[in-house]
């Protein structure tokens, strides 16, 4: 049986939350805010026209920018309202409603292995309790052997650094690098944000 995610619970308990989330980023964009730090990092890491999975894509802020930079982007999110916004605002990418804990785009014939999986926006902290390890395993299964996963989330979101690193190891990942921001400032255990670059071990 599929577990309800913390995001779903929050939306259920706070009607209109998804709409407000979309509007918040539209307002930030209209105000000239820089919303593309994550996309710049991924673009710098990826070869031209790379296949990129935006996992927990929301309304397509990161994946849409990467598609605009010429990459082949597939985005997935469980929130139908957010996916509808992504389809509307970023039609050059492909968007699907999917649960990350049950993700199997390759098995469904909807994608080839990805060069990069990006998971930004504290997505890991909004998963169903106890599923983070499974989600990381799904990410690894969707990567090409030379691919990398880049995952970012904050320290005050209920997912401890030690738990994340243990889950990543159990999923078969090697931690290549850690940063405290998307513009690559050094990470320490006292940092309040983590950006982890992972590579899949031998299958």
Describe this structure in words.
With 203 residues, this protein is an alpha/beta fold. The protein contains 7 helices and 7 strands, in the order H-H-H-E-H-E-H-E-E-H-E-H-E-E. It has helices at 6-13, 17-30, 37-45, 61-68, 80-89, 132-142, 161-170; strands spanning 51-55, 72-77, 94-97, 114-119, 143-154, 173-179, 193-200. Strands 3-2-1-4-5-7-6 form a 7-stranded mixed sheet, sandwiched between helices. It is globular, with a radius of gyration of 16 Å. The model has no long low-confidence stretch (mean pLDDT 96).
Q: What's the layout of helices and strands?
A:
Elements: H1 6-13, H2 17-30, H3 37-45, E1 51-55, H4 61-68, E2 72-77, H5 80-89, E3 94-97, E4 114-119, H6 132-142, E5 143-154, H7 161-170, E6 173-179, E7 193-200
Parallel strand pairs: 1-2, 1-4, 2-3, 4-5
Antiparallel strand pairs: 5-7, 6-7
Helix pairs in contact: 3-4, 6-7
